[in-house]
Specification:
elongated, cytoplasm, alpha/beta, transferase, tRNA_MeTrfase_TRMD/TRM10, two-stranded antiparallel sheet, binds ligand JEB, Alpha/beta knot, Alpha/beta_knot_MTases, five-stranded parallel sheet, tRNA (guanine-N(1)-)-methyltransferase
Length: 224
């Protein structure tokens, strides 16, 4: 999969050099590049923002640099994702869909967001999604894009070494995960639940299911 990100802060994306995603890139499974929006400007001050039509606080990202970036980057059959607090809520189902695409382009705004015509224009050149990672306010789209990129890339075959881990995740009936424990059996006076040491596979499965349901009831009753 090829992934491009367009941002005035391309350095945010250096976290993608680390860990599993970094390995997947070295292995050639993912090709990623972050592009500086200011490199698509032509004025001395590399201007990317202007005041909003209709008035109001803050600045809006002007369309011209985005147009030039798209002219260069929207080749082949890309899907463009605008990260925005006004987007549809990103979830695992969307991550699954995106993991099948050949080319993703993340458009990451700052300030009060991007001139809406940029989205309309992108729709004439590509499949376009406006997505949010949740109901809280960030200063820009970069952190949201990084979260989406991680969620999508770990679903690409070969990115996660042990594909059992992936298969396991879709096996909990839409409930939250059960709690996990490892050695030592006793730590600072805190014990691992006895049932997990028993070797009774049916009892362990039943306990985990009960814990999953309890957690879901307490933390995410909307899932029940
Ligand atoms: C994404 C962004 C801003 C109103 C308030 C703040 C570009 N879940 C999310 N929260 N915030 C964002 C997001 C996502 N995805 C997000 C892009 C931009 C916030 N801002 C700041 C804009 N409008 C600018």
């Amino acid at each position: 999969m090829r992934i491009d990100a367009i941002s005035i802060f391309p350095d945010f994306f250096s976290v993608l050099d680390i860990s599993l995603l970094g390995k997947a890139r070295e292995a050639g499974l993912i090709e990623f590049k972050a592009h500086d929006l200011r490199s698509y400007t032509h004025d001395r001050h590399k201007t990317v923002d202007d005041s909003p039509y209709g008035g109001g606080a803050g600045m809006v990202m002007k369309p011209e640099p985005w147009g030039e970036a798209f002219d260069q980057l929207l080749t082949g059959n890309p899907t463009v994702i605008f990260t925005t607090p006004a987007g549809k809520k990103f979830n695992q189902e969307i991550a699954q869909e995106l993991s099948k695409k050949q080319h993703l382009v993340f458009a990451c705004g700052r300030y009060e967001g991007i001139d809406q015509r940029v989205v309309d224009y992108a729709r004439t050149k590509a499949e376009v999604l406006e997505l949010s990672i949740g109901d809280y306010v960030l200063n820009g789209g970069e952190v949201a894009a990084i979260a989406m990129i991680e969620a999508v890339c770990r679903l690409i075959p070969g990115v996660i070494g042990n594909s059992d881990s992936l298969a396991d995740e879709s096996h909990n009936d839409g409930l939250l995960e059960y709690p996990s424990f490892t050695k030592p059996q006793s730590w600072r006076g805190l014990e691992v639940p006895e049932v997990l040491l028993s070797g009774h596979h049916a009892e362990i499965a039943a306990w985990r299911k009960q814990q999953s349901m309890l957690r879901t009831q307490q933390n995410r009753p909307d899932l029940l």
